[in-house]
What we know:
By secondary structure, the chain is an all-alpha fold. The chain has ten helices and no strands. The chain is 79% helix and 0% strand.
Amino acid sequence: MSTNTKNLIYRTFVEILGEKPFDKITVRDIVERANVNRNTFYYYYSDIYELLEEMFTREFTEMVAEHRNGFRWLVGFSNLLTTAYNNKKIINNICASRSYEYLENYMFKSCKIILSEFIHEISEGKNISEDIVDFTASFYMYAIIGTLSEWFRTGMYETPDNMLKKFMVVFETIIPTMMRTQRQIKNDISDK
């Protein structure tokens, strides 16, 4: 069996996912459109959930590769938003299915990498404890995931640029918030 056949099955799945909700896609849909038999499909994939997982793994791997090449949070979020926006039909069809958790897991992995680097970088040399830095990264990650989930579920009517501008305004408050938190914790400890 060839890698080309596996890629054909994968590309066919992504194509169909752009047309209908994930829960409505069957192995039969994929093999008929790809013009392969069921045994060929099962040679490469155990089920369509494995294909969905592969789709997000490929996107995540690509994002991490770009990250290692020195991209920063602004480029990272811009890429994440633009990729989602350019694949609006696929995102909508995943949101319309019971398999939204696969998309959510992808978002958590992506945001964790982007935010962790960003928050550690901006807090460097500011005498902010690691606990506060980690808490802040976690807090903003959940806030961003919630915001992105809402954007996805409501049809992504705002452009990626508008979403990015909103994130930038919020991110400007991160350092002052961490420093205020640090002072408050120190004051609470010294008051005891």
